[in-house]
Amino acid sequence: MNILIKNVRLLEESGERKDLYISGSRIAGVGEKPEGFVPEVTIDGSHRLCMPGLVNGHTHAYMSVFRNYADDLPFEEWLFGKIDPLESRMTPEQAYWGNMLSFMEMIRTGTTCFIDMHMFPQMCVKACADSGLRALITRGLVGADRNDEGGLRRLKEALDEIDYAASKPKAHVRFGLGPHAIYTCGEDYLRFVAETAADRGLPINMHMAETRKEYGDCLLEHGMSPVAYVQKLGLLDVPAILAHCVYLTDEDMEILRAPGISVVTNPASNMKLGNGFAPVARMLKEGICVCLGTDGASSNNALNMFRELGLMTLSQKGAAEDSLVLTAEETLRIALDNGYRAAGLAEEAGRIEAGKLADLILLDEEAPNFQPKHNWKAALAYSSTGYEVTDTIVNGEILMRDRQLTTIDEERVNAEIARAVKDF
Q1: Which residues pair with 357 in a beta bridge?
Q2: What is the CATH number of the domain that holds 16?
Q3: Position 70 confidence tier, pLDDT thresholds 50, 70, 90
């Protein structure tokens, strides 16, 4: 499809207004009409701000069915007392609708790509194909060692899912392996997953140093930090996405600087579960690729990346007692450039340039919270609610037009979610 967005303000062009041309899955031109271009759809951008879509660097999309269910609890009770028992009873169909509910929220609030750890093979792929969202998908892995029957089954499911995706041409997905955490995976199993990832050329996606207890237990059991432990096991020998990283040593900082490693901070989830504040400013200073994520809706209660932008910036300033510690521009770089890098898309997307993937969002620049129009990057970091987004485009397909979803039947999703939660 050829899409023309006329006279739209471009965040990357110092706020200048230009015509934007999309052909197929990619941007065909910025400001200058490509030869022979005939638009099939024209969008009036005269009161819109255009920017690359946001990347949610860490979430569990199926878990939106657990939203507002297990709140105000200590981490261990939340995870093992409430969420794990629910997951064990959850069906693949319920997981599919949980994904679709999450995607409704993501599309409405400007997320065009997400990095997911899930427990239900093929359901996230199917939901991506049906909705049009882009993702890096990793099946969550738990096991004691390389001979553990359950661990082997989960790993096989993760690899089978890659083959399944080939039958879903509209699924714009990439894959990795998702060992859940050092406290749910045995040492030999983690080595086996690392070996498999290296053999298959797959990245690792893992929870890392999220709680003080995880950090302390690792010191007692292995004599080293969680980051040093997984490096020893080979999990950082491939591209790795490490969620949380709240508790880090100076040596950990050095390890995390390596090319191919991305850290995803999840401020709302970390604060809500009482796990503290990741040292984002310090990591940036050390040259670490820091990204931004929401975590799942069971611990965040929202999958709104603009909300997360504001929380990250403000919490870092407050925790450091330094108003200069994280600027609006740095915050957007974390959510955009670093997010696309973690997702393996740094060369293909994340910029409004000819040839890049057309993963874009438009925002209503006349929203009252955007007035007056002093500084657009500050407005996005400090003022936006996420619901200023009017249009969402992924891979050149319009997923939301004038705030109306085009690929998801919202009424059906809400009905299926209401039915699903009756079983909880």
Answers
A1: 26
A2: 2.30.40.10
A3: confident
